[in-house]
Amino acid sequence: MSHRSILTTAGVLLFLLAITSLAVGAGDLGFPALLSGELSVDQLQLLFVSRFPRTFAVLLAGAGLAVAGLIMQMLSSNRFVEPSTVGVTESASLGMLAITLLAPATPVFGKMLVAAGFGLLGAGLFMAILARLKLHSGLLVPLVGLILAGIIGAGAQFIAYRFDLMQSLGALMLGDFSMVLAGRYELLWIALGLVALAILFADRFTLAGMGRDVAVGLGLSYGQTVFIGLVLVSLVSAVTMVSVGAIPFVGLVVPNLVSMAVGDNGRKTVPYVALGGAGLVCLCDIIGRVVRAPYEIPVGTTMGVVGAVIFLALLFGRRTAHG
Amino acid sequence: MAEASTLVDRAIGRVHDRNVQPTCTSDGGFAENRTMLLALTALALLAIGLFMTLGARGSWAFVLSYRGTKLAAIVLVGHAIAVSTVLFQTISANRILTPSIMGFDWLYRLLQTALVFSAGAAFTVTIDSVLLFAVETAILVGFACLLYGTLLSSHARDIHRLLLIGFVLGVLFRSLAELMQRLIDPNDFVVLQDLMFASFNTVDVSLLGVAALVIGAATLATARLLPTLDVLALGRDTAISLGIAHRRTTLLVLALCALFVAVSTALVGPVTFFGLLVASLARSLVGSRRHAVMLLAASLCAVIALVGGQTILERGLGYNSALGMVVEFAGGIVFLALLLKKGTA
Fold first, then answer.
1. How far from A152 is each of A65, A123, A205, B333, CA to CA, in Å?
2. Is B179 within 8 Å of A305 when comparing Cβ atoms?
3. Which terminal residue of chain B has fewer beta carbons within 10 Å of its beta carbon, N or C?
4. Is residue A200 a part of any domain in this protein?
5. Are B277 and B331 spatial neighbours (Cβ–Cβ below 8 Å)?
6. pLDDT tens figures, B277-322
7. Which residues of B touch A155 (CB under 8 A)?
């Protein structure tokens, strides 16, 4: 299949998923009503206050997180990393705790920026450790990231425990779309802009992943490129965390699946990864809404199971793990 | 505390034997490490003494029995984690693998959840908690042998892959447990929450007796295996040529590990990095290849760290339930350091 036809197929599939997402829920608005187009006032209100915002939030968060994972993988030239497995997500949660404690009245946007700043520090720490690793075993890198994430997470937990914020931390670390209503998710549109920026910079990230020497030799401003990449990653992580909470593994599994389906092609992969991320999170969210209806299972939990299974399959499947 | 003191007795007994009949002592037996072991024992006793007496007010009978149960649980858990870690490191021929890092703890928690999920809370409430514990432990031992036996033999050469697989398995078990908890009837969930809310501060006391029994038996079994373990540590090929049934012994040791993990997880919940912390500490302190010495030292280190840590956090700082987090934080840093040392070497 040509790239164009694959992209079209992916788009159509995603559209179907989005329609399903619109039609699923406890309220009185199913497929028949949605397709007939004859909606009562109440149904219209339901659609515009709850279903549309939720579906948009799902798609935006999924696309953003998957692309953030891709950037992380390009920069560290390793297939098995993503923001939530290298400590960026945990650092961002630390930032949220800090701003909640020190200046609770800060508007959401400000909190998001603080969280992103902390996330950036976490990402920088990870990259600094990577630079010191002489043995570049493909599997040592994600391992170091996971432990770093664990350490920062334990620190955040301790602070949350000390200042009675355990519940807030729990909500931050477990992605859940059930609270999304019109007026409470719009920050996520930032993710769309970040994805566009990622497409613009994708080729430079790939070069930067080849190491400082190669990148500089090819005329790339290495430090600046890595910095831009990490800023994008931290912003995506922070904006998702503030709006819906952390969703694990999206950024890890989607780029791998896409690379299996269409191969690696620098900048051209980014749209696939964005579509794939949106689709995967949408699917997990729908599953979470359907299996225990009218209750919901948070997307963080379903994604944890689905993502871990795919990750394991990747680990068993590949003999070499170098990107 | 009982099995720790019997271990000490045996340790001293061995030292006497050795004085009568000096044999090869170059591998760091009890004689060379006597000072260190005595110092560790003294420190452990000091920590226990402080834990029992510091800041006590009112009736001593109450204070001693209340703190005594908690102390017994902490000591049991420390011993269980230390021994299971050292054993696991021997059979996997590696010093950074531990049962908890490989996801054992979360496997146990997943089994607990799955049992309530499939049998219903009514069943789990009516059934005796000791019997339930026995069933869960038996299943864990079976599963652990099957899963990790295969993993260890098929991926032994690629340590990073093994570690990463173990880590992700842990995440998968945890997510599956969380998923099942969401699927369970809310009434059943309350029961489950009671079952699983164990932490260092809210020890499941009903299981203390049976836990002590299981740990005692497992420790005895380990003690009988000591010479075999020393040979096993020489590596697979050497061990086989020296007449050890390698595969069978490995599975047996794995089963013992699973027993220890089941007890510690049932009592205080999953603790990822603590085993690694005490095993590396013990290794750096006594530097012995003898399992008798290593196990004793690791066990003592665990008791010192847990009882001492709990005393400082609870009496000194007033953070009653922070021990788990502090242990996780410090252990994670040690693990990272070990990994980087290997990686950059």
1. 20, 12, 26, 10
2. yes
3. C
4. yes
5. yes
6. 888 888 888 877 788 888 888 999 999 988 888 888 877 777 666 7
7. 329
Note whether A189 and A268 are within 8 A (CB).
Answer: no
Contact by Cβ (8 Å): A296, A24: no
Using the Cβ of A295 and the Cβ atoms of chain B, whether some distance falls under 8 Å is answered with yes
Flag the least confident range among A209-213, B12-16, B232-236. B12-16
| Residue B112 identity | Q
Candidates A154, A304, A316; nearest CB to B171: A304
List Cβ neighbours of A24 (8 Å cut-off, separation of 6 or more): A286, A289, A290
Query: Are residues A158 and B344, on separate chains, in Cβ contact within 8 Å?
Result: no
First to last CA, chain B: 40
Query: pLDDT digit string (tens) for B69-100?
Result: 888 888 998 999 999 999 988 888 877 788 88
Q: Per-residue pLDDT for A142 more than 60? A: yes
A319 contacts chain B (CB < 8 A): no
Tell me whether A155 touches chain B (CB under 8 Å).
yes
Please check whether residue A247 lies inside any domain of the structure: yes
Please identify, in words, the CATH class of the domain defined by B2-15+59-344: mainly alpha
The token pair at B87 is 């054993």
Of A132, A134, A158, the CB nearest to B322: A158
Could you tell me if B229 and B253 are in contact, meaning their C-beta atoms sit under 8 angstroms apart? yes
In sequence order, the β-bridge partners of residue B41 are none
Domain extent at residue A205: 3-317
Flag if B160 and A137 touch (Cβ within 8 Å).
yes
- Do the beta carbons of residue A88 and residue A126 sit within 8 Å? yes
The CATH number of the domain holding residue A233 is 1.10.3470.10
Taking alpha carbons only, the member of A313, A314, A306, A309 closest to residue A287 is A306
Whether residue A157 lies inside any domain: the answer is yes
| Closest-CA residue to A302 (of A317, A276, A282) | A282
Nearest CA among A175, A33, A37, A30 for reference residue A93: A175
Considering its fold, how many domains does chain A have in total? 1
Instruction: Say which DSSP state A322 is in.
Output: B
B chain contacts of residue A129, beta-carbon cutoff 8 Å: 340
Q: Which of A154, A161, A301 sits opposite B179 (nearest CB)?
A: A301
Enumerate the domain spans of chain B.
Answer: 2-15+59-344
Q: Is the pLDDT of residue A277 over 60?
A: yes
Tell me which of A134-148, B20-34, B179-193, B229-243 is least confident. B20-34
For the record, the structure tokens of B213 come out as 């029994």
Q: Above 0.85 for ipTM, yes or no?
A: no
Contacting A residues, span 55-114, partner chain B, CB-CB under 8 Å: 80
The top-scoring range by mean pLDDT among A15-29, A132-146, B308-322 is: A15-29
The reply to whether A303 falls in a domain is yes
Whole-prediction pTM: 0.82
User: In this complex, which of A134, A138, A311 lies closest to B168 when CB atoms are compared?
Assistant: A311
- Given a cut of 60, whether residue B27 has pLDDT beyond it is no
According to the model, what pLDDT value does residue A318 have? 62
